Amino acid sequence: MSRFVKTVRILRDGSVILFVTLILLELSLRVFHHVNPTVFFPQDSYNRWRGKPHSIHCGFPLNSKGFNGREFETKKAAGTYRIVVIGDSFVFGVVSQKDVFTYLIEERLRQSGNVEVINMGICSTGPEHYRDLLLREGLELDPDMVIVGFFVGNDFAFGGAEHRSLGLRVADHTFVGSLAVALAHIGPRFDGQIVQDEERCKDYLPSFDLDTYLKIVSERSLIFSRSHSVFNACLRRATACMVETKRICTWRDARMLVVLMPDEVQIDAGLQSAVSERLQRKDLDFGLPNREFGKRLTSEKVEYLDLLEAFRVASAGKRLYKPNDSHWNRAGNAVAADALYDYLRKSPATAESKK
Known about the structure:
Elements: H1 3-35, E1 56-57, E2 60-61, E3 81-86, H2 89-92, H3 101-109, E4 115-119, H4 127-138, E5 145-151, H5 162-166, H6 175-185, E6 190-191, E7 194-195, H7 210-220, H8 231-251, E8 255-261, H9 269-279, H10 288-299, E9 304-306, H11 308-314, H12 330-346
Parallel strand pairs: 3-4, 3-5, 5-8, 8-9
Antiparallel strand pairs: 1-2, 6-7
Helix pairs in contact: 3-12, 4-8, 7-9, 8-10
């Protein structure tokens, strides 16, 4: 038998053994995850990246529910106007608890009435998760108002085939692949159901190097192109989810407000130029998703507040995002709190009207 034939057989047998091993490992991991769910593996539940109760985040302990806010009782105190805020890491906050916009706005609203603002933000979630979290945990809190934080940067394309069509990064759908990625990238910083990285809490430290950040922003910036094939599909999906969430709120006699949270690329001209050059596209309209989404929400009678203009104005004098990171820093959270407070104070059926 020639050396070539022996080599081919060895490679063939080795490939078969490797394939069977990976299949058995995949099945074993799926069984393990079914019995003992963990963030390392793909799952649709909003609990995947839920905070670990009482763990420390940016110097403050999370509450017993794993949220970045004060402890709260399920039963609402008499005479209290309760606002529940649902969203992803923008609502959870990558700053200290007392610098998150939900905390800031509660402090201001309390000056004119008995108001409670409950932060129910969970990192790496999207519109479908917001709806599910409201149904399963939010409604039992008997909210008078539900605020849904909608991050323009990735909430339009959250879930479904739109991720791949838009070129956005998605986790591997195999458990073996997901475990490999998790061990390589987040294993050293893993603590319970949330990755603890206190360095990200420092406003002055960049979260990524510039090239990595530009890649991330560029991949999700195709939503700013009207000519992109899946933009309308993303828009329909997001609108349908917000309409369904509004119906749930209406059913429980709670006011709902969608807050459009701008991506940094929407307000930073230099970043816009870098992204346009990287994508080699000249048709990017960085206000497009907000305008089109606003029109659809208005037609469906869904109340919304767009923070884009407030952030564009405020960004002229200070930095509102962490360096090389689309999350708001302390100043950005303060701008969001100011805009939201002004809106609630001027609009009907606010906390002040419940005094």
